[in-house]
Model the fold of this input.
Amino acid sequence: MTDNTNVETQRLETKAGGSVGAAFEEFMRAFEAYKDTNDERLSELERRSSSDPLIDDKLARLDRALDETKRVADRLAVKAQRPHLVGGEIETAAVREHRRAFDDYVRKGETANLSRLEAKALAVTTNSGADGGYLVPPETERAVISALKDISPIRSIASVRQVSGSVFKKPFATSGFATGWVAETAARTQTNTPALAELAFPTMELYAMPAATATLLDDSAVNIDEWIAEEVRDTFAQQEGTAFVSGDGTNKPKGFLDYTKVADGSWSWGNIGFIKTGVDGGFPATNPADKLIDLIYTLKSGYRAGGTFVFNRGTQAAIRKMKDEDGNYVWQPASAAGEPSLLMGYPVVESEDMPAIATDSFSVAFGDFRRGYLIVDRVGIRVLRDPYSSKPYVLFYTTKRVGGGVQDFNAIKLLKFEE
Done:
């Protein structure tokens, strides 16, 4: 995020006064101004066969403002809903003891209590202790995972499973059971045994390394658990988001765009199906929204019910200008802060890791990602304290293990910008 964007975000948050309602009202005003300006642009095109550059520039500025006001409204909504680490839950003696021991380790480097607690809980593995770090308290792990769901676009719509091992294996049937109709007293023939295969989702190590000063660690008013959670969650979310979309599966999850892609008419299991726009690097000039309708109906009805569009900000800007045959915008703003915008009645998730519109690009994805993409989290986030590598700062090498990949190849389809 650029410095200018950060300044604009802070200005909008200040203007809203921390109020979710005020921020959402600003978003709706921006959308109305956007529609009015785009209607003016379309009228110019009809009268002169070209648009006024001043109107185009205004529309681009409104488009950026629309994105930013929505981002601010969503951020304030998340802040309002985010619980504190303890969050009013009943804190057991064991959890309290672990949190105190972890605090001593982070602030002072004392390891004796943490080592004893992890040994007692049989949580010590071959890469733990002084070599692999120590487990953060459970409430800190929950805070990080909860924040990742709010920030990471694909994690917010995919299936997520926690495991204790390094690999999650999921069997699936490549051929169904034999079935048929039979009379009440007729003999039943033996059914065929289905052929089974296995999908494996290994977990890979994701790390962040926040740095702290001695002053921060000595300040008893600073909640160290919250500080670590806040420092690592954005880094984790950014790296995860890229991997879930385009990761190659080597030391990272395998993104849904990295699988073999085939024309939907030739689709087979193990591939991701796509349809073409019919135009290199763009939508058709006439009825461009029809291609989005075609994409929706490449999915079987059972998957369409849970469908979500995924594309980046630039693609969303292009789609926002589209209208249906009745003159209605196909893109509609969210009904409330924290809710997704809608495209033809389906939720929209904006992921900057999706490719921009270009010749042969796969810039729009649609599918039931809950059924189609699986994220595997290995239980436990570890922290290794390093006071030596970057004196006078103390580094905290923080790691979590996560994997991901497509689990149902029926559930995700792509739009390819090709003739």
